[in-house]
Amino acid sequence: MTLTDKKNSFNKILSWLLDKRLHILVWAIFIFYEAIIVGIFVGRFSTPGTYIIFYSLNIATFYFHAHVVMFFALKKPSERWWKLPLFILLELVVYILLTVCLDYILIHYTDYNGPIKLVFNAAFFAAPIYRAIYFMCFATSYYFLLNFLEERKKVENLEKQRLNNIIQIAKSENAFLKAQIQPHLLFNTLDFIYQNAKDTSPVAAEAIHSLAEMMRYSVDSNMDKEFILLDEEINQVENLMNLHQLRKDHHIQLRFWYDDEIRQIKIIPLVLITLVENMFKHGELLTASHPAEVSLRVENNQLMIETSNLIRAVKDNSGLSSGLENIKKRLAYTYGKNAEFNYITDSEQYFRVRLTIKLK
After folding, report:
1. Label partner for 196 (CA 20 to 30 A): which of 158, 160, 277, 336?
2. Which long-range contacts (CB under 8 A, 24 or more apart) does 203-211 make?
3. Is 250 left (phi over 0), alpha (psi -120 to 50) or beta?
4. Distance of alpha carbon 168 from alpha carbon 159, whole angstroms
5. Model confidence over 327-342: pLDDT tens digits?
6. Crossing angle of helices 272-282 and 320-335, rounded to 10°
7. What's the per-residue H, E or C state across the chain?
8. What is the pLDDT of residue 246?
9. pLDDT tens figures, 31-81
10. Which ranges form a coiled coil (predicted)?
11. What domains, with CATH codes, occur in the chain?
């Protein structure tokens, strides 16, 4: 072992001793009380080896009971009633057997001349049973104390987190209020342009109107709305489609299927419109023989949203994965196991998305 290894080992031991200094101090006081004070009153002391052997057993019993027996016995509430008595009984048996073995070694292999004799009667077994129960009781109290301190620490951490969340919410609300000034100005400007262009350039005015509606919806959806009606999302998808149709002179090949009844279903905002935006950004939507499709339907009390589109020959996947992963995280946070979200590229170079949400 090199000098560096020895130094590292020494530092680890020193760190462990400092970490356990309270335990060491308490055990030192306890052993001093029992070995010295009781010895003075009784008028008899044992050899140092005897103290080391039996107190090592008692200390090991204490920590084994607190960290192993109590932990596994109380892990499942439905099994506590039989596990705890069984584990304690087994622990007592093992303690007694170890005590007998240590007594045998002490009597036959050391110069011990004390009062202990290997006579297997009630008096012989009474002492180790008492000592085992004595340390197990202390260990049980220690176990519940540790749990209490751990739960209190969790509560304190949750309270700190709650306060931090309140502070962050307050900061976010302040930033949001400041950010409202610019959108408000933008919407007023777009409305002014729309009013002046609708007579002279109806196509441009229609594009401006669709764009303004979509932007207003996007801003409103970032407020405290957790759920919205699909009706709102469908309207904005139609605005988005209309905007792109105007840009491409109505050559966009996109079919949008849904029943009017589905408009009253509630969903988290900006899911459907994000999926459609990805289709326009990354898909080939100008081929009449391969039209893209968006379908919304309810089957078996589940909302199903499916999209499919031919992939562009020149791929531009920037932002595709991040947008879809963002949807997946939002769905998982809100719906948990009640939502399934999958997307694949099939052998025909179609990109297909399937979202299923279990309705309440």
Report:
1. 277
2. 203/246, 206/242, 206/246, 207/243, 207/246, 207/247, 210/239, 210/240, 210/242, 210/243, 210/246, 211/239, 211/243
3. left
4. 14
5. 898 899 899 999 999 9
6. 170
7. CCHHHHHHHHHHHHHHHHHCHHHHHHHHHHHHHHHHHHHHHHCCCCCHHHHHHHHHHHHHHHHHHHHHHHHHHCCCHHHHHHHHHHHHHHHHHHHHHHHHHHHHHHHHHCCCCCCCCCCCCHHHHHHHHHHHHHHHHHHHHHHHHHHHHHHHHHHHHHHHHHHHHHHHHHHHHHHHHHHCHHHHHHHHHHHHHHHHHCCCCHHHHHHHHHHHHHHHHHHHHCCCCCCEEHHHHHHHHHHHHHHHHHHCCCCCCEEEECCHHHHHCEECCCCHHHHHHHHHHHEECCCCCCCEEEEEEEECCEEEEEEEEEECCCCCCCCHHHHHHHHHHHHHHHHHHHEEEEEEECCCCEEEEEEEEECC
8. 82
9. 888 888 877 776 777 777 778 888 889 999 999 999 998 988 888 888 888
10. 146-180
11. 20-172 (no CATH), 250-358 (3.30.565.10)
Is the entire prediction scored with pTM above 0.90? Answer: no
Chain center to CA of 256: 38
CA distance 151 to 146: 9
